[in-house]
Amino acid sequence: MYPVEENGGYSVVHLTGEVDLNCSPEARKVILECLRRNTPLLIDLSAVTHIDSSGIASLVEGYQVSRTLKLDFGLVGVSERAMSVLRLARLDQVFPIFASIEERLKPDPSQDV
Amino acid sequence: MNTAEQHSLRDPVIEVDGLVACYGSRKILDDVSFDVRSGEIMVIMGGSGSGKSTLLRHMLALNRAVSGSIRVFGLEMGGVSSRELHQLRQRMGVSFQNGALFNSLNVEDNVIFPLREHTVLDDNTMRIMARMKLEVVNMAGFEKLMPAQLSGGMAKRTALARAIVMDPKLLFFDEPSAGLDPVVSADLDELILRLRDAMDVSIVVVTHELDSAFRIADRILVLDKGKVLIIGTVDEVKNSDNERVQNLLNRRSEDVIVDPDEYMQRLTDELIGL
Known about the structure:
The complex is a heterodimer of chains A (113) and B (274). Chain A has 4 helices and 5 strands. Chain A is an alpha/beta fold and 113 residues long.
């Protein structure tokens, strides 16, 4: 079971270890359950050692659901290895990607009045 | 340290030792030994009838060796059980020369096929995985086409998408450039290199296309009449002073030396009353 925490109005799903054919169904389940609660979502990949196409597919499905629900969504802590898998399918140009949870949560100066 | 030297430090994913293969009484492979290292692109070259397709079939456990051994991911292929072979094939992808697509399935369902066979993933996950791989091979937007509607290059790219849909750690290509124009062929080579780098996959390519081999290979194995003529980096093969290697590189045909006894044996083997 992947841990989920609430932080700054976001649900943060911490994926860990190998997210492969065996584990991606669980990752998908946790991601979709969070979105059913109608909260914006961050997926923390910083503790992921390997993510395969089934894991990436779970992220794609989660992102599409969040877009349908108009909920904010982002990936954080994406390793270079995971990034190369995203790049291969050009998904690095699709997902909102942030260096860390803190970077995503920090106030956007452009929103200041 | 160059790429080939870096790979030489990695674990072997394929180890072939003293392989002998025959069709009937005819020896096709004779004492073939080599290995393929993790993350390496090994290109197997040779003229028609050199034994390269037979070697590929043995590495895929489609044929049994007469003698010698083949180990894939440490598993001896000669004594492998059907269950072990099934598990092994989940880690291997194959892109056959003719594509070998199912004519009754559209492009997307062809690519999904291995996932349906080997996994119990949700249908949405399988469809996204297949479409991602079609994006990778530049086949996005053609999901619903049937194989009969595809050009040769499109069929090969679809076959490649199917070969990589399970994220294999070992990928085989049988004549990837055959029948393709030079631009499409170069695109496919570029794709093979990108796949290796992004997926850290070991790749074995069987081809007789020199340009393609030189573009993608970390090492090249040249087969001639069932024997290994040379194994080396692109430069080592290019600079080889072996006459037969140079004949192959320069596409010069060789004079055939006839052994009268062998020739007569071939012509009259198994005939009755002679």
